[in-house]
Design brief:
about 200 residues; AhpD-like; about 0% strand; globular; Alkylhydroperoxidase family enzyme, contains CxxC motif
């Protein structure tokens, strides 16, 4: 297996020096998906930071008690509300695999028809946290309680969304565009709905 670094920069930063940690990140990408993702090359400037962020995201997911499909929904709603095309494509594709491409495209567009009441509450909360966290009210939190989330779970969901905002912000600010390989695997309906953010490159 080749461990050579990609040639063109992934964004606005030069690729980091290839040490053992970076090589492991690149090799893992090649093994799992056949190419090194642009976001991996950006985060390779601090493998430790990515590992810590990934750990807290995992703990938040576990504490929230959300299923994989709900995690894909939360990330897709968060990323699209933020205007992040990269995670909207990557996680919208995962959402499409469980819920259908048309439904995933509607979530990206901000329409939650077709979702059950629990998933609608999650998507609405994610968008509120992205767009106006200081504008949330007790009634908004009560809407999550009404569909079965307790307060520790609501904290965990909110932490998860906030960390996804941080992850997307780093990628977007440093110019990481969606991978052309990723875009080629995104259903046409979903690709058309992602009309914002950076274009694949």
């Amino acid at each position: 297996m080749s461990t050579a670094a990609p040639v063109a920069p992934a964004g606005f930063l030069a690729d980091p020096v290839i040490d053992d940690q970076v090589r492991q990140m690149y090799d893992s990408d090649r093994e799992l998906q056949g190419y090194v993702a642009n976001l991996t090359r950006v985060w390779a400037h601090s493998p430790e930071a990515l590992a810590l962020l990934s750990y807290v995201l995992k703990r938040a997911t576990e504490a929230a008690g959300i299923e994989p499909g709900q995690r894909a929904l939360l990330v897709t709603a968060t990323a699209s509300a933020l205007g992040d095309s990269y995670c909207s494509m990557a996680w919208g594709r995962k959402l499409a695999a469980t819920s259908g491409a048309d439904r995933a495209a509607r979530v990206v567009a901000g329409a939650d028809d077709g979702l059950d009441h629990r998933d609608r509450a999650l998507a609405a909360w994610a968008r509120r946290v992205v767009r106006d966290p200081s504008g949330t009210t007790a009634d908004h939190v009560d809407a999550l309680r009404a569909v079965g989330f307790d307060d520790p779970q609501i904290f965990a969901v909110t932490l998860f969304v906030a960390l996804r905002i941080a992850f997307s912000t780093v990628n977007d600010a440093l110019g990481a565009a969606p991978d052309v390989e990723l875009a080629a695997m995104v259903p046409a309906e979903l690709l058309a709905a992602v009309s914002f953010g950076r274009r694949p490159g």
